Amino acid sequence: MLLHPSLMTGNECCERLAYYGISKNLVTYLKTKLHQGNLEAARNVTTWQGTCYLTPLIGAILADSYWGKYWTIAVFSSVYFIGMAVLTLSASLPALQPPSCSVSACPEASLLQNDTFFLGLYMIALGTGGIKPCVSSFGADQFDDSDPTERVKQGSFFNWFYFCINTGAFISGTVIVWIQDNSGWGIGFAIPTVFMALAIASFFSASNMYRFQKPGGSPLTRVCQVVVAAFRKWHVEVPHDASLLYEVDGQNSAIEGSRKLEHTSELEFLDKAAIISAADAKSDPFANPWKLCTLTQVEELKILVRMFPVWATTIIFSAVYAQNSIFVEQGMVLDKRIGSFNIPPASLSTFDVISVMIWIPFYDRVLIPIARKYTGREKGFSDLQRIGIGLVLSIVAVACAAIVELKRLEIARSEGLIHENVAVPMSILWQIPQYFFAGAAEVFTAIGQLEFFYDQAPDAMRSLCAAFALITVSAGSYLSSILLTLVSYLTTQGGDPGWIPDNLNEGHLDRFFWLIAGISFVNFLVYIGCATRYKYKNV
Predict the structure, then answer these.
(1) 17, 31, 525, 535: which sits with the fewest CB atoms below 10 Å from its CB?
(2) What are the residues whose beta carbons fall under 8 Å from the beta carbon of 141, sequence distance 6 or more?
(3) What is the DSSP code string of 293-308?
């Protein structure tokens, strides 16, 4: 058994505990400590989460082009830790927090208080984004995917890697959130900071055991070279015999650390970049990739183009997942009492995590062996089938949230609480199904994305393609923010309170959930069309 992939999963567990120790209860901190309203707090959370999944492009380009995955993780982990420390100071020092609310008003946070808090928050976004595309692919690099036995273990690695992510999320959603709500935000942010330090120490402890893949140069440059070379030869006819296209001799390609890719017949125009023209034969074009590219370099770009429709259709899934902050706000106006114990609304998202932690062992140990008998595939389901199942489950999750909200508003009306900004007598435990289905959707779609973008990526673009998977989360969060803004604008015309007012008893949050469910259903139909047309790569 390889030890270092196991250490990578432990490292990820600590890092995710640190991340979710901030993000799980962030909407509560913004509302109770920085005195922001429901809409502003939800928008700030989704925008920050979106940034956390946009910055992976920075880490991916640096890793694939110059630093390699190891040093990229090392540098951005340090940025991450500094951001955690700044955030902890912001929550600990009275001078960096606005005064508490009085009976009549809640003082706004000063410029210094806001700037300090958001400086730490966005340093975390840069740090986590920088390392995120590298950690999963660096862990998967420890397996030899040319060995059938190790390839199966690699598929299992992604499942257990995600399991460790959710172990960290589970601890954050229970213990850390409880500490933040009951013992103070200073200590509540300090504990995740300590776990981030443990994650960094765990990563460096196995440095002499890792397998390293050399960076292959800038993937963006190689893409541009193919486009430029193809347009230079737009008038040249593509030969019917693919063996006439330019490729270096030997097993490995001209790209550092990359195997050769087989020719595919689609996107024929790009093949022009690999044609050795009469003008090329008279000169020395092999030293100028802006005039002549290898077949493998052309196929790299074709893979990215083929991936794009699949990538685009998973953005809506991420928009559904971004509704977690809205789920928390919904929980705030439900009855949080279980006997003598009050459940913090953010802690209920733990059922999402529990669902993931139940589904991953079931999927890995039970479902895959059964599916393997029927499909003959090593992994049971194809990556695209797995993603599609998750998209269906995400629609079910939002529909459950809409049904709960319909019932909650019905109770609010019957109890005469419409104009009272108070919780209604309906147990918060009714939110469990929406969190459970959201967790099941993650196991299928989120892990399926990780595997799909790693397996289908060119060897020298794996960090970049992992970043593409993460950018769907960013795009989904930004889409959610845009939807929240549009819904607020369109539904508050004429003095109406709108669908998502500060007093949710006056609103129609159920309509917002149905809107998301409807968009998700249309997106699923588009995804089916894209998935059925997709052609897998051949090395």
Answers:
(1) 525
(2) 69, 211, 213, 462
(3) --HHHHHHHHHHHHHH
